[in-house]
């Protein structure tokens, strides 16, 4: 019995040593796992920061690449095809056959040289935008809401302050009062002016 007890005691000591070794190995693995998790969290934070920075840079580039309409002028053309341009932007309503809007696209070295779609909204004194599907009018999105445009043009932006012209014939008498012309590209307003019909 003494021999068997001694053998059991020796086996228990050996098992205790194995358990102690396993505990030490476990602690080492736990420490390594914790270190790896911390490193992964730091990398995730870094990736999130880089993604956020990229989004901010993309937004800045998008803002910087917006076009601007410069030197916006409004003229009217009567039924005899004679054009009238007034510094005060005031015209007689009954003589107006067509509205002519001209402007230049401002220089922008950030905006890519590509096809741009320019929309013009001609807004009457009551706040309604003129549009007619048969004359090229339609709808587009402004700040997530649908809006009507009077006319649109596709043109290749070449960064040369190129001139743009819209000619609109309503086909009916124009209302008297203050009219607004809004110009858009990519759903963003690039210019605005007003004129009065008396």
Task: Give a summary of the structure in a few sentences.
By secondary structure, the protein is of the alpha+beta class. It has one helix spanning 2-64; strands at residues 69-77, 83-85, 90-91, 98-105, 115-123, 138-142, 145-149, 151-156, 163-169, 177-185, 188-197.
Explained architecture:
With 198 residues, this protein is of the alpha+beta class. The protein is 32% helix and 37% strand. The protein contains one helix and eleven strands. It has one helix at 2-64; strands at residues 69-77, 83-85, 90-91, 98-105, 115-123, 138-142, 145-149, 151-156, 163-169, 177-185, 188-197. The strands form three sheets. Strands 3-11-10-5-8 form a five-stranded mixed beta sheet, with no helix packed on it. A four-stranded antiparallel beta sheet has the order 2-1-4-9, with no helix packed on it. A hairpin with a 5-residue loop joins strand 1 (69-77) and strand 2. It is rod-shaped and about 130 Å long.
